[in-house]
Design goal:
Layout lengths: L6 H13 L2 H8 L3 H15 L4 E4 L2 E4 L1 H26 L6 E7 L1 H8 L3 H7 L3 E7 L13 E4 L8 E9 L1 E6 H7 L12 E5 L7 H9 L4 E6 L2 H9 L5 E4 L1 H5 L3 E3 L9 E8 L6 H16 L1 H5 L7 H4 L9
Parallel strand pairs: 3-4, 3-5, 8-9
Antiparallel strand pairs: 1-2, 5-12, 6-12, 7-10, 7-11
Keywords: DNA-binding, Transcription, Transcription regulation
Family: Belongs to the LysR transcriptional regulatory family.
InterPro entries: LysR-type_TF_proteobact-type (IPR058163), LysR_HTH_N (IPR000847), LysR_subst-bd (IPR005119), WH-like_DNA-bd_sf (IPR036388), WH_DNA-bd_sf (IPR036390)
């Protein structure tokens, strides 16, 4: 009688199928590549079938792998549900909680308030994962997420906590050097700080493509923190969350908020963790902290006098 595959081996199989190679799977599982290769070999031996073709571009699933993939994912879903249900009833506000958000949001909107949270909950260990990749709460890649898009999974609970307004900015030094900014002229004669790689798909990047069509691109970046620093250094015009204008007086808002680019901030966690004391404490802290910043997140900074900001000012006009 054929032995039933172990869940740990199926875990490694799924990681290789999703990552496309041993190194990506090892990073996901936080083990070394040798372990992934060994567990995969054990599973292939137990099943009596090759699961991946080793190609120069990576591991390509065989027909057998594609047939068993849905069943393996079903096993994974049930195993993770057992974990969530077990931890979901934990009544002690202690232990690790993983929160995922963008680097900019964690740095500016969460970390300045963390010391107060630590004083109230010294036994909770926060793991803050920054980046633009959407980690899976269903697969427990994180416990809580701060997202700018409402999730569609029915098992996830989402709470709207704020809205982020977007404003075009340039530094005072840049405006003094380059002169008036006119969006109706496509920013002709000006430079913009643009978006690179995957961030080219962001609505902000598409807005610049339309409204700054005649500008040159000084630099392209993939993070909000990078865009902020480039703007502060006077490299060009860029789009940033409105609250940066409150934090950095050297930045000049060139227009009011852009309603079409407003982003809603959602606080998301899995319904199975609703009764987990440490997750609940983190969710309540984040809801209160972000909610207290709602006005500054959505309100445009005060614009300077028209002559100072050089918007719509036509040369020779009196």
């Amino acid at each position: 009688m054929q032995a039933m595959p172990q869940w740990s081996d199926l875990q490694h199989f799924l990681a290789v199928a999703r990552g496309g190679n041993l190194s990506a799977a090892a990073r996901q599982l936080k083990v070394d590549q040798t372990t992934v290769g060994r567990r995969l070999a054990v599973l292939e031996r137990e099943l009596g079938a090759r699961l991946f073709d080793r190609t120069p571009s990576g591991f390509r699933p065989t027909a057998v792998a594609l047939r068993i993939l849905p069943a393996a994912e079903a096993v994974e879903a049930e195993a993770l549900r057992v974990e969530r249900l077990a931890s979901g009833e934990d009544l002690r506000p202690s232990g690790p909680v993983t929160v995922t958000a963008t680097d900019s949001f964690l740095v500016h909107n969460v970390m300045p308030w963390l010391s107060g949270f630590r004083e109230r909950h010294p036994e909770i260990e926060l793991h803050l994962l920054s980046g633009y990749e959407t980690l899976s709460l269903v697969r427990r890649e994180a416990d809580v997420a701060i997202r700018l898009v409402r999730p569609q999974e029915p098992s996830l609970r989402a709470r709207k906590v704020a809205a982020i307004s977007i404003v075009p900015f340039a530094s005072k030094a840049y405006l003094a050097r380059r002169g008036p900014v006119r969006f109706d002229a496509g920013l002709e004669g000006h430079a913009v700080v643009g978006y690179a790689h995957d961030s080219r798909r962001w609505p902000e990047s598409k807005w610049l493509d339309v409204h700054a069509a005649r500008a040159t691109v000084a630099v392209r970046l993939t993070s909000i923190l990078g865009l902020l620093q480039a703007a502060r250094e006077g490299l060009g015009v860029t789009l940033l969350p409105a609250f940066f204008g409150h934090l950095h007086p050297e930045l000049v808002p060139l227009r009011g908020v852009l309603p079409e680019l407003e982003r809603t901030v959602w606080l998301v966690f899995h319904e199975d963790l609703a009764n987990n004391a440490r997750v609940r404490a983190v969710v309540d802290f984040l809801a209160d902290t972000i909610g207290a910043q709602a006005e500054s997140l959505s309100k445009a900074p005060t614009r300077p006098p028209r002559a100072a900001r050089g918007i719509g000012k036509r040369r020779g006009n009196r």
